[in-house]
Design goal:
30% helix; binds flavin mononucleotide; TIM Barrel; 8-stranded parallel beta barrel; 4-stranded antiparallel β-sheet; single chain; alpha/beta; 312 residues; 16 strands
């Protein structure tokens, strides 16, 4: 187990849509494994919540070819949702997570190919050991020529209704930034019954190799993450926070406590760290400790005093 870092948990403890967490800083889906992989680097008890790699109905080997490309101030990935599938997740992975990190809040991220499949996944995940579910609607809808569920307000709402009807867990819907008006999607998902929103997922990008004239990524395009995303994500959180009442999990390009504070001021109740985990595997707890220091320096008693306080 990694060393714990001193921080005042009284100032940091957070209730996110009924999900109790020791800090408001979570490990983002796809960048934090199932959490337990980080046990050598951090004290998992100091993690706000582990958000799992995206689980799908069947096991997936992911995309062939190059899956990661570095860009200035960020990276692109086209992992292709490599994961063991829901059955193996429930039989093998979940018990291991609960054995190694029994006290850490565990949120399962998942996606599916149709509205019905989303409901089936939510039902299967309605088990002990799962504290909440995060619905990834950035994936392609096989019945709509591969258009992502999260790009159409009505379809995003349909997925949300189906998931809500299939589970007793808090439902976080993770929005795609690859849309013209994210507020429209956020409001549709809130009306459909989501308990919380997470934003943002990756922005679609492309890198071309000028020596070969070929795309660098095996999948041609990929999802952009990292510091370059932050101003876009903060803007979207701010716009959505003004339009909805449900809590927001803000993410996209957070590397430092100051970055996280920007999201909280914009209106997020909690934050998640993605690509930065690859640079600093202790980022989730370092950012929480940094937020604590920031609160102390400002004479604030609790992190909730920052939420939505931007003077804009
Ligand atoms: C390698 C990698 C894999 C990811 N896998 C998933 C996933 O399975 N499900 C999901 O909802 N988001 C996934 N994401 C998106 C992140 O959770 C996050 O929304 C995005 O990277 C923006 O945050 P960041 O800039 O802090 O990385 C992935 C991101 C990366 C870099």
């Amino acid at each position: 187990m990694g060393k714990s870092i001193p921080m005042n948990m009284d100032r940091l403890k957070t209730d996110f849509a009924g999900i109790k967490m020791p800090t408001p800083v979570m490990g983002a889906s796809g960048t934090f494994g199932f959490g337990v992989e980080y046990d050598d680097f951090i004290d998992l008890k100091q993690v706000g919540a582990i958000i799992s790699k995206g689980i799908t109905p069947l096991p997936r080997a992911g995309n062939p070819g190059v899956r990661i490309a570095e860009t200035p101030a960020g990276m692109l990935n086209c992992i292709g949702l490599e994961n063991p599938g829901i059955e193996k997740f429930l039989s093998d992975v979940l018990p291991k997570v609960k054995e190694k990190a029994p006290d850490t809040t565990f949120i399962v991220n998942f996606s599916a190919g149709s509205v019905e499949e989303f409901g089936m996944m939510a039902k299967k995940l309605d088990v002990d050991g799962v504290d909440a579910i995060e619905v990834n609607i950035s994936c392609p809808n096989v019945k709509a020529e591969g258009l992502a569920f999260g790009t159409d307000p009505e379809v995003a709402a349909e997925v949300t209704r189906e998931v809500k009807a299939s589970t007793s867990k808090p439902v976080i819907v993770k929005l795609s930034p690859n849309v013209t008006d994210i507020v429209k999607i956020a409001k549709a998902v809130e009306e459909a019954g989501a308990d919380a929103l997470a934003l943002i997922n990756t922005l679609t990008g492309m890198v071309i190799d000028t020596r070969t004239w070929k795309p660098l990524l095996g999948n041609i395009t990929g999802g952009m993450s990292g510091p370059a995303l932050k101003p876009i994500a903060v803007r979207m959180v701010w716009q959505v926070a003004k339009a909805v009442k449900i809590p927001i999990l803000g993410l996209g390009g957070i590397s430092t406590a100051e970055d996280a504070v920007e999201f909280l001021l914009a209106g997020a109740t909690a934050v998640a760290i993605g690509a930065e985990n690859f640079v600093h595997p202790d980022a989730v707890v370092q950012v929480a400790a940094g937020i604590d220091k920031y609160l102390e320096s400002r004479g604030l008693n609790h992190v909730s005093e920052l939420i939505g306080k931007v003077e804009a």
